[in-house]
């Protein structure tokens, strides 16, 4: 083989390597999301939820910066990650402000404020971990929900433990009627989505993404109100309890947290890297 032929082959090999490196780069870019930003103006809850779910379902991390107005008056700025979103509500976890429920539904007492602008950053996952665990139905005490969250909260890197459950309050007497006005303001000052319903001698407390301390404080307050009115409480029974544990992936051992949750009866544990 002459010198010219050797040079041509060497040049061909270099070109092949260049083409291969470009192809690999294109393929990597196709599967590795770059940070993208969506600037959503106004309380467009449908648009916010659709953008979030579309991104999260494809494995992207979603972080928000929010400007808005408190329902109690005044403006606010918050930033953090989405805990829950639907066409009417957005639940945001801000490390400084805690759990915030944002919505344009003015008649819902659990809503903290209405967003006027949301900057949504979508990028690569990896910085934080979310662990969702389901615990079967059981009879509970007012402090039981908070006690469950002490298990994951003892691990370094756990930022929050949120409770979702429907709790029924049983009365001793079947002919007792509980006026809704007695407990209509019982959720005031709590965080998360809380709805309290009365039907005859039954009270249903529906909680979604409520901080552990608020969940137990709410149940204690209801029992106190009933006892003050001379209504004896037979007990509390909860449907399936979901614990949502928000953590820092850099310091937390997700497997260890999951193992501890299984020890207290948790089932269907799901771990997700978010941001």
What are the SSEs and their pairings?
Elements (H helix, E strand, L loop, with lengths): L2 H29 L4 E6 L3 H13 L3 E10 L4 E11 L3 E6 L3 E6 L9 E11 L4 E8 L2 E3 L3 H10 L4 E14 L8 H4 L9 E7 L2 E10 H17 L4 E6 L2 E8 L5 H10 L3 E7 L2
Domains counted in the coordinates: how many?
2
Give the N-terminus to C-terminus distance in angstroms.
Answer: 56 Å
- Roughly how many Å is the radius of gyration? 25 Å
H/E element order: HEHEEEEEEEHEHEEHEEHE
Helix content: 25-40%
- Sheet-strand content, in percent, reads 35-45%
Multimeric state: single chain
Instruction: Supply the helix-strand structural class.
Output: alpha+beta
The DSSP helix count reads 6
Largest sheet: 8 strands, antiparallel
> Any idea what the shape is?
globular
Tally of strands: 14
Unreliable runs, pLDDT <50, ≥5 residues? Answer: 10-33
Q: What's the mean pLDDT score?
A: 83
